[in-house]
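Moderator note: this is an archived Q&A kept for reference. The question asked for a predicted structure of one protein chain; the sequence and the answer are reproduced below.
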Amino acid sequence: MELETRLRSTAMRALSSAGFAELLRRRARLGAWLKREAPVVHYFHQADDPYSLRAVQKLNALREAYRLPFRVHLTSQAGPEYQGNSERFAPWALRDAESIAAGYGVRFPEHSQLPEADAVTAANAVLAEVLEDADFATAATHVGMRLFAGEHPRATTQTGSASRALAAGDALQAKLGHYQGAMFYFEGEWFWGLDRIRLLETQLQARGHAVDRGLSVVPEPVPTSPGTKAADSVRLEYFPSLRSPYTAIGHDRVLTMIERTGVAVTLRPVMPMLMRGVPAPAAKQRYIITDAAREGRVHGSPLGRVVDPFGDPVRRAFALFPAALKLSRGMEFVTAYLQGAWVDGVDIGTEAGLQQVAAAAGLDWETLQDARTGTDWEADLEENLQAMLGAGLWGVPSFRVSGGSRSDSFSCWGQDRIWRVEDEIAQRS
């Protein structure tokens, strides 16, 4: 294994370990104890963020369910380098918020739109005025619903107080190590929006802050069962990447969903985002690997002895995929690669490592090499990428569902949305 790969892999193994997560918690507790600070949950609200509008609707219920303060801060929109694809980020966030609001039991404007800059400024002025109020959540929900419905909130104060509140919130969030809205912070750990409140609740209950330990304010949505298998009347396009921790920890659940629903699948792998020039600052990369590892542990797919090759080793693996697909073992190849790279510590940057992957996928190495004749993996991956981008997506794993009882298609991305994909399949079956 090359030195660069070894160093990167060692760092990722450390960051993805349960021990590192516990170390962060203990360090934060010690810091608070030395400062004689009581336990507190910090919530960072971004007025023009659809995820914040969803998350804040659960704030009052959280305050009632846990015996510690929830301190609210206003924060600004993250820079484009943190958004992955700044052209697609805002429209996608709006679509995603509309799509899953019902699953989480929250409201969102039926015909939503992206707010204008002056309306956001006015909204922040209103929110700065009620920032310390016990019922901030109600005011923020009202303001957010109006804002995303295209209305202009009326501010009764000058925008100077909002600027100061935003500056203070941004500074605290940066000091604590994050960059976006709808974030909860507790004892060294970050939780993004509705999708991670359940993990925040796990920590609050473990620390003895729950009024009723058996209560969960925001459980993970349960997908609707299709009743009977969808067979080939509904089609699922699945866009994974071989160098994606979220793909790795969600892949088994995707396979289970496919088996449970009987949906017809088209497997469309894409090149990793960093190898496509998608920016990811250090703070974002760190959050991704720690968050993905935490989600993997929760869902029974923990990351293990991670091997993280970059560049040519990944291209060599992708070069084998069309041949595996030709031999009707495409999904098995992806499954074996993810297992080898993210769990078993297989040195997938070498031919010997790729031979292990091929064998685990039920492929004979020589037959696989012969099947490469006439394949063009780069053209295939580019076609998959353009299909994914055309659906308004850019990250992995992504999904597109079509067919069945509807003529349009549904697209989403993230292992957080596997339940929503299954819901869509059920609705179309």
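Archived answer notes: The chain has 17 helices and eight strands.
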